[in-house]
Amino acid sequence: MSVAAAIVEEAFFRRFVxxxxxxxxxxPGLEILASGVVFGCAHMIWGVVTxxxxxxxxxxxxxxxxxxxxGVVFLLSDRLLPPVIVxxxxxxxxxxxxxxxxxxxxxxxxxxxxxxEPGE
Length: 120
Hints:
This protein is an all-alpha fold. Helix content is 76%, strand content 0%. It is built from five helices and no strands. The protein has helices at 2-23, 28-42, 45-50, 53-76, 81-104. Helix 1 (2-23) packs across helix 2.
């Protein structure tokens, strides 16, 4: 799963999204920002999976930051996918199993002072 995610996500978020922004005249900063924001938003699915929108926002912030860093790596590597694929894979290999277990094992809890969270 980590290999497939790294290949597919990096091809989309770095090559496709950043390429579209560059093709539309956006500079490197805008390319990085766009890929990070889109990457983070796509990972808000964790909020849907867990039933907690604040969890989704936290995950979006974390993965968005990661997306920014991967965008920088992509540009520094002269737009080569292997460096970001390997980076993404290694991150997923270490972090992703724990996040899946946390989400599906019920360990991702809502922030207690949020009255809008389900299950309180």
